[in-house]
Amino acid sequence: MRGALGGPRVLLRRLREVMAEPVSAQDRLDKIVVLIAANMVAEVCSVYVLRVDGTLELYATEGLNRTAVHLTVMRIDEGLVGTVAREAEPISLSNAQAHPAFSYRPETGEEIYHSFLGVPILRAGNTLGVLVVQNRAHRTYTEEEIEALQTTAMVLAEIIASGELTAMALPGAEPAARRPLHLKGLALSDGIGLGHVVLHEPRIEVTKVIADDLPGELRRLDEAVETLRTSIDIMLEDEGVARVGEHREILEAYRMFAHDRGWIGRMREAVMTGLTAEGAVERVQSDTRARMLRMTDPYLRERMHDLDDLANRLLRQLTGRATGEERAGLPDNAIIVARNMSPAALLDYDRSRIRGLVLEEGAATSHLTIVARALGIAAVGHLENIVGQVDAGDAVIVDGVSGEVHVRPPADVEAAYVEKVRFRAKRLEQYAALRDVPTVTKDGTEIELHLNAGLLVDLPHIAETGATGIGLFRTELQFMIASAFPRTNEQLKLYRSVLDAAGERPVVFRTLDIGGDKVLPYMRAIEEENPALGWRAIRLGLDRPGLLRSQIRALLRAATGRELRLIFPMVSAVEEFDRARHIVERELTHLRRHGHGLPERVLVGVMLEVPALLFQLDQLFPRVDFASVGSNDLVQFLYAADRGNPRVADRFDPLGPPALRALKLVADKAAEYGKQVTLCGELASRPLEALALAAIGYRKLSVSPASYGPVKAMLLELDLAAAAAFVAPLLADGADAGSLRQSLKAFAEKAGLPL
């Protein structure tokens, strides 16, 4: 490469010296553009910074009219500079003025320059600005020069991202790198959290990007890549990793990328421009991410996440930082930001320090969401590329009510939310005041309100809310967060703790509902085309009776001298229930034979969540002691809409006539046979839906702890007879098939019901 100052390595060393000088941000930029222009034998070097309003502002120049600095502003869809920013790709032209995107700005005096080289200033794949060099001659820039300018842009990205330039900007024209973000996602867990970002998989911050010893940096890179490859091979050879399944497919993809010559070659080339091994990894991954963010193919977007993770693993190898060590210094007001995570990973954090959870993915009925609700953590999901848009320590507000997230919020927004938190605290005080008030509707009908639970952290909510009992205890959550299969004594201890916390209140234990999307980390996953419809819950338990028997034995022993209520999930035929009940009888016989204490009474029920059971109710109800409706699965099976798939999860309304008619059929049949039925899915946890359920005949609802107060407050104000009379004609044969949601909202508003 031609260079008055000796090439890119010399330039990077000079940049490092400028970065260390105690000068203003403007002086630093002015010196940098002079250095770059001299090094590249260019008559012009300019830095454009992307602003919060989406425009590009000229922040520094060598060669153009200096009076144009901070005055020249262009749209991102304007000119060659705008094209570089929009496409996040370099543009090299020997005759820029002949290009159709060329835009002449007279105040700059650039009409005398013909050749143009512009590269995006990128960080984590996001465009922060554009770095440009120009020459009068019709010059063709070499690949080496383009690479060198991209490397230099990486240094500028850190200056922009640091916020150093913000003080130079007019209000409303600040650099976009630190701009406030107002994002709209999917509300997952109620609540409001104010705090600071903690990345679940933190990006390694590369502090040294300029190399002193290129051969040494190449060796470091090669050694780290080889260590990474070996670690992936070891994981794949581990007997605990399934031979097929999603986990193995991810590792196979990692191995493919780790051996990709193109990926390794680009990082080696970046080192040769003067970067450290860490700087090269970050530079290549940021460029790759910028391209892939602009792709629409979902498969390629998924591969972006694989490459992000692989690059992060490589950076950890190079920096010697162990996974998870950042969690030791969790701030008091942490907002966890992640692409996605398991319930066990969330529980690894210190709950007392977490104020919110923000996800790129997530679903309203996922198990992570259920755990977040149990912990009382505000959560929002479906925020694309949120991990790439925030930095650790950024101020953030999570609104789990509206699904909004504010990153780096302005002072007025933060003040408004502080007031909103105070208002919510007053509402919670009002709900707490209802603790000992019986849940009786305005016209005198008693509604039993129970809690959904699954973890020890849920147990204090029983006393706090004054709940009638636990209508659903999800026993699988203990298995999902454990690193190994819980022994019988461990299960026994948990179940006793639950019964002790409930006291005289009833507790309904659901036997293991694993399989499908509930994969235990220590069990071999089974690859299935449709796991939600596959080998899971009671199907797995009946095929592996030892697993089911050990759990039932622990439950029976835990309930010695007390009442035990059991329900079996995912039952699709009465014969399955008969077989499961037979196992309970066998275990009772075993305990009697060996002199163990027995429960005072054992009640065995069924989860109604498979539509096939709706056509067997006359055979089912004489066999069961009680029933519970799992609305999450029942609704998804009725509509054939995967509740974990964001594209279809909200496509069909559970307040539509098909779902409500199915639910009413169950309530009517239960009343006919004199059997109690509880609705324990997430449907009951929303006041409007709880209104509909009460109107069609449900007198027992089981809700999440956070929803207990709002649902109870609504029921206390409800005229149930009026609600039933209002809903009945809407569900009659021949009625309009549209959702009842808007009609119910109008009814609630007219009746003054708190929703």
TrEMBL record:
Keywords: Cytoplasm, Kinase, Magnesium, Metal-binding, Phosphotransferase system, Pyruvate, Sugar transport, Transferase, Transport. The keyword Cytoplasm applies. It catalyses: L-histidyl-[protein] + phosphoenolpyruvate = N(pros)-phospho-L-histidyl-[protein] + pyruvate. One of its GO terms (cellular component) is cytoplasm. It holds the Pfam family PEP-utilisers_N. It is found in: Cytoplasm. SMART domains: GAF. GO terms for biological process: phosphoenolpyruvate-dependent sugar phosphotransferase system. Its EC number is 2.7.3.9. Signal peptide: none annotated. Its cofactor is Mg(2+). Gene3D superfamilies: 3.30.450.40, Phosphoenolpyruvate-binding domains, Phosphohistidine domain, PtsI, HPr-binding domain. InterPro entries: GAF, GAF-like_dom_sf, PEP-util_enz_mobile_dom, PEP-utilizing_PTS_enzyme, PEP_util_C, Phosphohistidine_dom_sf, PTS_EI-like, PTS_EIN. The keyword Transferase applies. Residues 24-170 form the GAF domain. SUPFAM superfamilies: Enzyme I of the PEP:sugar phosphotransferase system HPr-binding (sub)domain, GAF domain-like, Phosphoenolpyruvate/pyruvate domain, Phosphohistidine domain. Belongs to the PEP-utilizing enzyme family. PANTHER family: PHOSPHOENOLPYRUVATE-PROTEIN PHOSPHOTRANSFERASE. This is phosphoenolpyruvate--protein phosphotransferase. It comes from Starkeya nomas. The lineage of its organism: Bacteria, Pseudomonadati, Pseudomonadota, Alphaproteobacteria, Hyphomicrobiales.
